[in-house]
Each structure stands twice: as structure tokens, then as C-alpha cells.
Write a structure and sequence with these properties.
alpha/beta, Rossmann fold, Dihydrodipicolinate Reductase, domain 2, seven-stranded parallel β-sheet, seven-stranded mixed β-sheet, 34% helix
């Protein structure tokens, strides 16, 4: 592919919370044009502003999937920030039309199955190039390859990531605010987990996820975090080439008290996705009573405490009361909703950032490395904050790695084909180096063991 920028046409599908830094980066490159196709065209126009190399149009993949092929055909590269289930559909259109593609999502089995088709079409489909997954992979591989280059081997790897309110913005009892899709956050809380700990594989069913957490303290922050396992860590033993590792753990950071609070939400049934059709005229308090099959009376809270064996510390019931789950006057938004969407609706109302508040991204790796003459503990930490009244840290750390990769792909700096994640030096070194110029940098420390 030619390395000039002349007439490089990019298609962006989706205009969610993390798109603005990506859009601004790409529209600032001379010769690049960007079309944002989304269900809410007003969002696209707001992101583009008055820039002449940006365009917006209406597109809904669920109601009009046949329009996808024509959209992809007119561009050189397609970025899919749609819900992950749609990525394989977009990838098939990219393969058919021999167009480059990028997502920030995990590689699903359906996406992985398209690897040979992408190679046959001579295109690159880049995945997992946001924050988590994304910067976590790239910063980890830089350390792992560095250890190998110095004659060592990594015997243990633990990685954690969390998007949270900055300490001064941590102002509600839940200890959490949403910097990306609330529905996506809750759906992720349903995932099962699997990891390697001291040579043994540990499997955690989704319903038990929040029963298994531990405490992690960072030197950079006053308070520590609760950490719980994130999906299946086992495949990353091969992805990262950690054949000598006895521990491989990828986890999520949350503020203290989070895990018990969310575990009891799951026990209550609020993570269920099956639509209920009997919610007409029901208040949130009525809904809580129905879910637990106890009367809606003054003793509802105590009855739920007994039924779900809710502890007094952390104060779960107090958090739920603040959220509005026991409000007898607040109606359920729609007569037909899943419990998960009922929960998301009240999260959207109560767990938002106020104007001027900052979010925070924390990414922390812990390696143990063995060399012929010594052992080391290596840490790599990214601590990044949002810009007051500007871009969130979550938007920057997800959107900017993707934007840098798009530029590299269109300028001929990534010449591989097939379905890839950013774990080779040809990808992660230039992306991480450019992110440092944009203020996103991991700090590494080496501690002798």
C-alpha cells in the first residue's frame, strides 16, 4: 500500500463514548476523510463539527444490514465500534471488498475463523487495539520481549485494568461511574473466568465471579483496589509466548466494596437478560419484591437481607437504597424489560460523571522473571486521568491506540495480512512510542527478588 495520505477514505461504524479522540486524530491528518455511520446521525455531526473532511450518515446494521456492503466498498478501511457480535459481519464485508478493518474488541471464535479468508483477500484485520484489550497487550509484550532479549524467562504474569472515577470524583456510595457503555459493563459482569495460578487452572462460573477477589495496592494511589478475574486468561499463555509461566492472571480493578455489592445484584437476578412482560405500572420497589418473592412492605429490605444473606459491611442495602432500587414512587421505564436493562436504566441515571469531573484509567502488570544469575519482579503501570470538560481517559486510552493503528495501516506501516492482535514489535513499538507523545505512558520498575 502506498505510504502517502492521498484520498484515504475511512469508515467508522458507531459513535459511542470513546470515539471523539479517535475522530479528532484522524480528521487532523491531511488527505484522510472519515465517514461516521451510526444510528444516531446527530452524534456523528457533533463529532465532525465544521471539518470538511468528515461526513456523517445514518446506518443501523440491525435494521438494514444490506447497506453494509455498499458502505464498506466506498472506503479503504473500516473501523467497527459496533457491539462485538457484529464484528464478524463487518469483517466478511471487508474481506469481500478487500478493505482493511480494525476493531478494539476481543477476537471471537467467529472472527478468528476468518483469518485465512483475510489472508486470501490480502487484508489486515486488526483487533484488540484499545485499552483492555490493547495497551495491556502492547505494554506487556514490550516487557516480555525485553526479558527474553536479556536471557531471561517470565515465570509469572499478573495484569489488572480498571476504568474508575478519579479519587476526587469518587463521590457516590457505589464507588463507580460509567465512562463507557453501562450495558457493556453489566454484561461483562456475567462472564465466567479462567486463569493459571501456581501451575493449577482455576475456573470460576459467571454467577460466582464476584466471590473470588483480592486486594491490590499501588504506590501511586492512596487507596487500593478489589481485583477479580477477567474472562479466560489461558489463551494468552500462547499469545504472549509464556511457556515457562506457572501463573497467568488477567483481572479487573474496582474500588473497595464493589464485589460484594455486585455479587448480590447477581444473586437477586438483576443480571438476567430474558425480557419480562409484566412490569406495567410497577415501581422499582415492586420490582425488587417480585424478584425476591417477598411482600412489598416496610420489611422488604430486611427480608432481602435474610434471603440473600447480605452482610452489613460493606453496606450493600444502603448502596441500593441510594441507587433507587427501593423507591416506591419511581416507575420501571418500560412495561417489557429484562432485569439487566432495568438495572442499566437506573445506572444511567445515577452513575454519571458531573461536568468537570475526571475519570481515571489504571493498568498494572506484575511480572516475575528468572535469569541464569538472578530473579526480578517487574511492574509496568499506566495511571491516566481524563481532561476536565474534555475527553475522558477511557476515550483517550481506547480511541488513540486505534487511531494510531489506522494511520499506520493506511500509510503502509503494517504489511501483515489476516486476523491479528498487537503483540509483535512491528506493531506495539510504534504505537506505544506515539502514545507517549500523546501523554499516555507506562512506568516500569525493576525490583530484585
Amino acid at each position: 500500500m502506498a505510504s502517502d495520505n492521498k484520498n484515504k477514505k475511512i469508515l467508522l461504524l458507531g459513535a459511542g463514548l470513546v470515539t471523539r479522540p479517535l475522530v479528532n486524530y484522524l480528521l487532523d491528518i491531511p488527505g484522510f476523510t472519515l465517514t461516521i455511520a451510526t444510528r444516531t446521525a446527530t452524534k456523528a455531526f457533533a463529532l465532525i463539527g465544521n471539518r470538511k473532511n468528515g461526513f456523517g450518515e445514518y446506518f443501523d446494521i440491525e435494521t438494514n444490514p444490506d447497506a453494509l456492503d455498499g458502505l464498506v466498498k466506498k472506503h479503504d478501511l473500516v473501523i467497527s465500534l459496533l457491539p462485538a457480535m457484529h464484528h464478524p459481519t463487518v469483517a466478511k464485508a471487508a474481506i469481500k471488498n478487500k478493505k482493511l478493518m480494525l476493531t478494539t474488541s476481543y477476537v471471537s471464535p467467529a472472527m478468528k475463523a476468518l483469518d485465512q479468508d483475510a489472508k486470501d483477500a490480502g487484508i489486515l484485520i486488526m483487533n484488540e487495539i484499545g485499552l483492555d484489550p490493547g495497551i495491556d497487550h502492547m505494554s506487556a509484550m514490550r516487557v516480555i520481549h525485553g526479558v527474553r532479549k536479556n536471557g531471561g524467562k517470565v515465570t509469572s504474569f499478573r495484569s489488572y485494568c480498571g476504568g474508575l472515577p478519579a479519587p476526587e470524583a469518587n463521590t457516590n456510595p457505589f464507588g463507580y461511574k460509567f465512562s463507557w457503555s453501562p450495558r457493556g459493563v453489566v454484561l461483562a459482569a456475567r462472564n465466567s473466568a479462567k486463569y493459571l495460578e501456581n501451575g493449577k487452572i482455576v475456573e470460576i462460573p459467571g454467577e460466582d465471579l464476584f466471590d473470588h477477589f483480592h486486594y491490590v495496592k499501588l504506590d501511586e494511589l492512596k487507596d487500593g483496589f478489589e481485583a477479580y478475574a477477567n474472562r479466560d486468561s489461558i489463551p494468552y499463555i500462547d499469545v504472549y509466548g509464556l511457556k515457562d509461566a506457572h501463573t497467568m492472571y488477567r483481572g479487573t480493578f474496582r474500588n473497595l466494596g464493589h464485589c460484594v455489592t455486585w455479587k448480590k445484584l447477581a444473586d437477586l437476578g438483576l443480571f438476567e437478560v430474558e425480557v419480562m412482560s409484566s412490569l406495567e405500572g410497577m415501581s422499582y420497589r415492586d420490582f425488587m419484591a417480585m424478584l425476591t418473592d417477598v411482600p412489598n412492605d416496610a420489611n422488604l429490605e430486611n427480608a432481602i437481607v435474610k434471603k440473600l444473606n447480605i452482610p452489613s459491611d460493606p453496606p450493600v442495602i444502603e448502596k441500593w437504597t441510594w441507587l433507587g432500587l427501593f423507591d416506591n414512587t419511581k416507575p420501571i421505564p418500560k412495561p417489557e424489560m429484562s432485569p439487566l436493562d432495568v438495572l442499566v436504566a437506573i445506572f444511567l441515571e445515577k452513575l454519571q460523571y458531573e461536568p468537570g469531573e475526571r475519570d481515571m484509567v489504571v493498568l498494572h502488570h506484575i511480572f516475575e522473571a528468572e535469569y541464569p544469575d538472578r530473579k526480578e519482579k517487574i511492574t509496568s503501570t499506566l495511571l491516566d486521568f481524563g481532561i476536565p470538560n474534555g475527553d475522558t481517559s477511557m476515550a483517550r486510552t481506547v480511541g488513540l491506540p486505534a487511531a494510531v493503528a489506522v494511520r499506520m495501516m493506511l500509510q503502509g506501516e503494517m504489511n501483515m495480512t489476516g486476523v491479528h492482535v498487537p503483540v509483535i514489535p512491528e506493531i506495539y513499538n510504534p504505537v506505544l512510542n506515539e502514545l507517549e507523545t500523546l501523554g499516555i505512558k507506562c512506568k516500569e520498575r525493576v525490583i530484585p527478588i
